[in-house]
User: Which sequence fits this backbone?
């Protein structure tokens, strides 16, 4: 059984007792424990179930590479699935539950999959569920969907907060192991701004567990001293619980700081912080990860990496078992063996697949009296939910059993893989070093920065320097390169005195026994989390999936939350063996960010709810709110859709607003309309190029409706242009178009017509603009005073600037409702006062504010187009019968050349028409298709409905549509299919429904 | 994330501060151009794996358009210059020549 020793454990504080729960059981731990060490200390070996076969699984590793021990953490708003127990620093009250089982963890109904595993071979999705056809939809798909994924998705809103942090640094050192700390010490006096980050909750890495002599002290003491020394330097910041998850172009790093512990202790209101870092240089001291070996039963709970067992013992005082058998292909396992043996754990046998080793460590183990068998392997592990014994066999051969050894834990070591994911994120290449049996950075093809220089320096075991005596082999040379990249003077590298030891070579054998029979292979797991077995890889290779990228996707090797940190290399080696190729020929899969999973919450940061996107409000917003307005978002603005009074329905309110405006007086907050000032001696000439109309001929004091097209000829914005004076134009745009049109004008001015003397200014928010519309509009203006507002002195499309009552105002006689109408702009600071003044003076004129829906209905009754309704980025002004607004005199304007293209003159282009419904009070659904009368299917589609309303003025539904060759359809009936097979019959009419002559607005 | 130095305000701007504007040095075709010329102007764009001349807008900054020469494969940046240059300046083309290092070993 796994248990806690009465003494020892460098990271735990035995005076601090913590309580936590696993699957409802109350358990105890110590401060400094991880969830994994705490579970082992409580003899909880079975932690979860595997993905496909629901096989019992236990803890394999002690870090982020953990494939098995995934748990769900917390509940409600704190719930988080798929957290690896090995990376959770325990706090009081942690509530963890196991995942992926039907029924209890111990008795999982889903484990029936294990018995019928033959129907889940590699690529089973594509093979097993083909026949019978009907079963896919009704049986297979629902079953697979419910089985997919390990943990459950959270159901409640995340109750934690997250934020962002930005940092600009000289050097980021990734990895707080001995290499990272030594690198920091070397750079400390340079004055460089340095951030050193460590993903775990402690510094020192594996050198805390696998201790060695350095500068006459042991590595543990050395690290503690180094940690203290570094804290004296103001230019160095050290962060724990901090992972760099991606390195991007131009040395941009994304870091994730886990502050869960502090949040729980109320020392922080933030749970995770996302760091966005620009660094001049990066040092990768990311270390290495031990590889598992591939043999039958290598996934049974109790089988663990040697390094993990050593860490659990040295850091947390936890034993991996009482009787431990070790299987290795290298010398490093022996340091775990010796430590565990000296701690009093029984080690009946060390099985070494190599023929021999002359290393110091195996010799030392033998001297201690530990039985070591060379050229041997494990045929299979016996046990279901727990290791019970192992069967010894020869490395060569099929796995005939030589001896059965009773044990409760198997430790394995298949060599080490340098952690180079981050080296590759930005394009750096990696290669396989068959001598070291690991990946190494290919320094001929590094990740490069904007200057074309390599910006990542790899040090220590990440560089394949696994042994203490090699650890700093290249450090001087590499740091000197870094100094020259950063234009710094070379500094003497600090020398370290480390005992040299002799070590045996790592064997390339990792899959045992070499000629294992099918039964053994079918229980030899390569990828634990996705249940990929040796047999799956063989099938994939046989079926021709020879590229690693294909193999990965076909078998799902390395595709789980651990992204194959343990399994990738073994998978590639197996594929290389199967294909008879070298590993470098087979290649590796591409490493992509994120290196470790982070929560979506931290990516969202503070951009949630009201902070998700800023909202624009007009100066009259509060009044709208207090007076029953229902708001609708228009671009980033909030505009009143309608004002509800008393017990009105929304429709009643809209109809009241329309009728009141048509019969008496309405008032609209039109402040959101874009307002752009174009001034300068060439302003008229410039606007002639921007608009389809002639603007240079506009007289000062007059207004003109204008259209803007893009170079494709498509209409993209419209609005009234006012010539304020000889050199100054005010261009109104749509609400959504103000920023776009402003940028558009700037772009053309800066990049094409920079010789034109103009200055462009977006003044949208400088003015509050109010529309006064209706037969009584003139009366209100007279009451305001200051402007001769009769039809002779102030004609349609006239403009006035001056005092209106006590207000500095600009008055435009323009109408979008078809009524006598004035738009009045006052400085924003006066906006609310002017609105209130109008309300006050308008009381006995029956003045009523109206919203955007009434506005839309009135413009549709008049047949005025709305950008975004009648246009969709493929419509030219000619389609909308707006030829009158396109100048024929101008030599050039944006879109003119495009209008000459043959496609634009096609008679079958969709053109704007009106639709009139017979005997119907219901409006046509927006966007519905219109078909030939009696037509069926796509070939008979004529077009679609662009605007559709119930007109309270005419007391009938009205609609506009874009129909193929619409002009020729006038008077004809078209079909409009609606829900449940019903068809509306509509007559094609002119797209004007009310006051076609314009008598009402010109009075 | 890319970063460029804006040639107008000299700010070293992150990609999030900028808006891309596609290929640089296009010659506008207006009325009078042939159908093919106009088609090429509207739709034909270079998309090289290598050195590329691009337009960028310092949208969340000084608001100016400028030109960038960069390598789309290695993300190296060779220089930025005014949007009112109709051809890339010789100084920047010289830097490009000096640094032709793509696909070759970088010392």
Assistant:
């Amino acid at each position: 059984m796994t248990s806690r020793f009465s003494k020892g454990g460098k990271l735990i504080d035995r005076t601090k007792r913590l309580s936590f729960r696993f699957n409802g059981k109350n358990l105890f731990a110590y401060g400094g424990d991880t969830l994994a060490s705490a579970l082992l200390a409580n003899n909880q070996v079975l932690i979860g179930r595997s993905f496909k076969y629901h096989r019992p699984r236990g803890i394999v590793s002690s870090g982020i590479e953990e494939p098995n021990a995934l748990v769900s953490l917390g509940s409600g708003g704190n719930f988080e699935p798929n957290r690896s127990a090995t990376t959770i620093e325990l706090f009081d009250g942690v509530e963890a539950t196991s995942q992926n089982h039907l029924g209890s963890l111990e008795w999982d109904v889903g484990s029936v999959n294990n018995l019928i595993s033959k129907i889940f071979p590699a690529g089973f999705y594509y093979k097993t569920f083909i026949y019978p056809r009907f079963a896919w939809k009704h049986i297979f798909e629902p079953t697979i969907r419910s089985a997919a994924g390990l943990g459950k998705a959270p159901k409640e809103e995340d109750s934690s907060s997250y934020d962002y942090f930005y940092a600009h640094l000289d050097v980021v050192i990734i990895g707080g192991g001995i290499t990272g700390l030594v690198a920091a010490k070397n750079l400390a006096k340079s004055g460089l701004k340095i951030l050193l980050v460590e993903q775990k909750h402690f510094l020192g890495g594996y050198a805390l567990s696998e201790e060695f002599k350095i500068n006459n002290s042991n590595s543990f003491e050395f690290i503690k001293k180094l940690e203290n020394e570094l804290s004296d330097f103001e230019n160095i910041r050290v962060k724990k619980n901090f992972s760099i998850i991606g390195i991007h172009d131009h040395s941009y790093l994304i870091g994730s700081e886990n502050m869960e512990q502090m949040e729980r202790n109320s020392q922080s209101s933030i749970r995770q912080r996302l760091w966005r870092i620009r660094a001049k240089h990066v040092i990768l001291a990311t270390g290495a990860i031990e590889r598992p070996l591939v043999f039958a039963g290598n996934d049974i709970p109790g089988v663990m990496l040697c390094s993990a067992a050593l860490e659990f013992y040295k850091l947390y005082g936890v034993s991996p078992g009482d009787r431990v058998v070790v299987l290795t292909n290298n010398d490093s396992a022996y340091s775990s063996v010796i430590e565990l043996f000296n701690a009093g754990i029984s080690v009946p046998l060390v099985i070494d697949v190599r023929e021999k080793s002359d290393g110091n460590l195996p010799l030392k183990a033998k001297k201690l009296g530990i039985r070591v068998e060379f050229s041997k392997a494990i045929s299979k592990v016996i046990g279901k939910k727990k290791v019970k014994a192992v069967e010894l066999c020869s490395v060569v051969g099929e796995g005939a059993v030589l001896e059965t050894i009773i044990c409760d834990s198997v430790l394995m070591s298949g060599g080490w893989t340098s952690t180079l994911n981050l080296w590759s994120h930005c394009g750096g290449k990696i290669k396989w070093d068959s001598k070291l049996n690991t990946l190494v950075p290919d320094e001929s093809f590094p990740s490069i920065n904007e200057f074309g220089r390599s910006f990542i320096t790899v040090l220590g075991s990440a560089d394949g320097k696994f042994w203490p005596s090699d650890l700093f082999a290249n450090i001087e040379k590499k740091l000197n390169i870094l100094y020259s990249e950063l234009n710094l003077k070379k500094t003497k590298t600090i020398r370290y005195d480390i005992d040299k030891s002799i070590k045996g070579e790592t064997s390339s054998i990792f899959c045992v026994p070499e000629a294992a029979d099918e039964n053994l292979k079918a229980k030899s797991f390569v990828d634990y989390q996705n249940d990929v077995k040796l047999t799956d890889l063989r099938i994939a290779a046989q079926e021709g999936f020879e590229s690693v990228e294909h193999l990965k996707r076909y078998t799902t090797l390395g595709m789980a939350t651990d992204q194959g940190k343990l399994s990738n290399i073994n998978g590639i080696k197996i594929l290389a063996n199967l294909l008879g190729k070298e590993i470098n020929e087979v290649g590796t899969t591409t490493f992509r960010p994120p290196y470790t999973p982070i929560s979506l919450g931290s990516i969202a940061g503070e951009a949630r709810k009201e902070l998700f996107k800023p909202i624009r409000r007009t100066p009259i917003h509060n009044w709208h709110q207090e007076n029953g307005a229902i708001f609708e978002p228009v671009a980033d603005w909030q505009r009143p859709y309608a004002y509800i009074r008393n017990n009105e329905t929304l429709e009643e309110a809209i109809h009241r607003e329309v009728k009141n405006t048509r019969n008496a007086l309405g008032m609209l907050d039109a402040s959101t309309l874009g307002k752009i000032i174009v001034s300068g001696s060439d302003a008229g000439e410039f606007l002639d190029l921007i608009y389809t109309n002639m603007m240079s001929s506009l007289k000062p004091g007059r207004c003109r409706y204008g259209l803007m097209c893009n170079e494709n000829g498509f209409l993209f914005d419209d609005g009234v242009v006012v010539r304020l004076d000889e050199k100054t134009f005010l261009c109104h745009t749509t609400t959504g178009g103000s920023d776009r049109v402003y940028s558009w004008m700037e772009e053309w001015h800066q990049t094409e017509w920079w010789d034109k003397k103009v200055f462009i200014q977006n003044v949208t928010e400088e003015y509050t603009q109010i529309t006064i519309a209706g037969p009584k509009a003139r009366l209100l203006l007279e009451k305001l005073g200051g402007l001769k507002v009769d039809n002779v002195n102030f004609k349609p499309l006239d403009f006035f600037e001056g005092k209106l009552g006590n207000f500095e105002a600009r008055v435009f006689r323009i109408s979008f409702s078809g009524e006598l109408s004035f738009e009045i702009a006052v400085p924003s600071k006066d906006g609310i006062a002017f609105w209130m003044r109008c309300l006050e003076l308008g009381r006995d004129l029956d003045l009523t504010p109206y919203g955007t829906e009434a506005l839309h209905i009135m413009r549709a009754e008049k047949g005025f187009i709305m950008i975004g309704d009648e246009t969709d980025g493929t419509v030219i002004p000619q389609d909308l019968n707006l030829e009158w607004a396109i100048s024929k005199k101008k030599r050039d304007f944006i879109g003119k050349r495009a209008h000459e293209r043959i496609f634009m003159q096609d008679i079958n282009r969709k053109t704007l028409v009106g639709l009139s419904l017979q005997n119907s009070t219901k409006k046509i659904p927006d966007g519905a298709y219109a078909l030939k009368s009696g037509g069926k299917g796509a070939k008979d589609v004529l077009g679609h409905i662009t605007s559709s309303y119930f007109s309270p003025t005419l007391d009938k539904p009205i609609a506009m549509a874009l129909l193929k060759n619409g002009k020729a359809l006038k008077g004809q009936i078209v079909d409009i299919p609606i829900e449940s097979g019903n068809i509306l019959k509509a007559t094609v009419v002119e797209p004007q429904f009310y006051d076609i002559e314009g008598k009402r607005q010109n009075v | 994330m890319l970063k460029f130095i804006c040639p107008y305000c000299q700010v070293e701007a992150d990609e999030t501060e900028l808006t891309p504007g596609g290929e640089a040095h296009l010659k506008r075709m207006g009325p009078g151009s042939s159908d093919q010329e106009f088609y090429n102007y509207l739709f034909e764009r270079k998309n090289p794996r290598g050195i590329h001349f691009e337009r960028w807008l310092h949208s969340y900054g000084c608001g100016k358009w400028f030109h960038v020469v960069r390598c789309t494969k290695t993300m190296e940046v060779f220089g930025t210059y005014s949007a009112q240059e109709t051809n890339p300046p010789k100084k920047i083309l010289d830097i490009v020549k000096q640094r032709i290092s793509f696909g070759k070993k970088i010392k």
